[in-house]
Task: inverse folding
């Protein structure tokens, strides 16, 4: 299952001048590498792998890069990660999702493997240069594409609706929330800046901007939710920027006395039910003043005991 923390990997399959390993991996649904092909590496750490490579003269005196590659496949990759198979400096020839842990399989010449579900319905090769920060891919067998995001991958496959839907079905997005209390009292242009454009639904994960100080490129993902609270009794609400109004849905939170029901027997003076008292008081306030001055349930949030409830009341 793809998730919001899924890592995107560049992978090379087989020898540079032969498609034998590549064709085999696509057919059986695997990624595979060689090295130390006479032993199962399931229980080995990076240091163990590096030590074994140093013991074998075939890999030279400093086989660090090979150890990094092996360790990535054995220990670092996880189920749900994305793999992109190298085609050229700017293109990939296949995209897939890892669906198994590491395994050792001695019926193949490249025996260190993970199972992958390939997206075979795309028009390959695919140019990913702009998504990779305008950087070329290198010949290193396996490494992380740290400049790319899951949103980038979905955009790459978006031209094929079948593949896009398949990818999105597997993408278990973890939601993140940003809560801005009393948003109407803040300076909206200073709070949001470039975000005011990027938070629009059709801009999420697509339109990018640059951070003013670091100059790093950034975008707003679809799993970030911004919640702004405000008190409608506050007259500053009338001054809220129109640009902000049209980017948010306004949801009124009515006073909810049921929050008091979480406490067993919320009674005072042996006969006054606090739940009913709150409702009755709000009815009187509505009659005497207006709806904006009613008692809200936020007063009673975070209360952990009946004694604290009485003190708060």
Result:
């Amino acid at each position: 299952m793809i998730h919001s923390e899924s890592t995107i990997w560049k992978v090379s399959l087989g020898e540079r001048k032969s498609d034998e390993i590549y064709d085999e991996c696509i057919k059986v649904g695997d990624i595979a590498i060689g090295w130390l092909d006479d032993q199962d590496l399931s229980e080995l750490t990076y240091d163990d792998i590096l030590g074994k490579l140093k013991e074998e003269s075939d890999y030279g005196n400093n086989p660090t890069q090979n150890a990094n590659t092996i360790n990535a496949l054995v220990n670092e990759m996880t189920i749900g990660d994305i793999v992109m198979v190298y085609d050229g400096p700017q293109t990939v020839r296949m995209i897939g999702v890892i669906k198994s842990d590491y395994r050792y399989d001695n019926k193949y010449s490249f025996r260190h493997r993970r199972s992958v579900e390939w997206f075979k319905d795309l028009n390959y090769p695919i140019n990913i240069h702009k998504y990779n920060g305008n950087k070329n891919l290198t010949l290193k067998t396996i490494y992380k594409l740290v400049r790319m995001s899951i949103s980038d991958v979905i955009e790459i496959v978006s031209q094929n609706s079948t593949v896009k839907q398949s990818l999105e079905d597997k993408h278990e997005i973890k939601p993140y929330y940003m809560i801005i209390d009393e948003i109407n009292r803040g300076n909206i242009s200073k709070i949001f800046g470039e975000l005011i454009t990027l938070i629009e639904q059709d801009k999420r994960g697509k339109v990018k901007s640059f951070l003013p100080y670091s100059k790093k490129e950034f975008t707003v993902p679809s799993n970030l939710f911004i919640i702004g609270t405000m008190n409608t009794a506050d007259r500053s609400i009338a001054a809220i920027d129109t640009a902000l109004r049209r980017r948010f849905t306004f949801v009124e939170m009515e006073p909810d006395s049921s929050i008091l029901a979480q406490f067993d027997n919320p009674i005072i003076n042996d006969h006054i039910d606090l739940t009913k008292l709150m409702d009755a008081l709000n009815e009187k306030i509505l009659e005497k003043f207006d709806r904006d001055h009613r008692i809200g349930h936020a007063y009673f949030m975070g209360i952990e005991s009946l004694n604290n409830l009485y003190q708060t009341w």
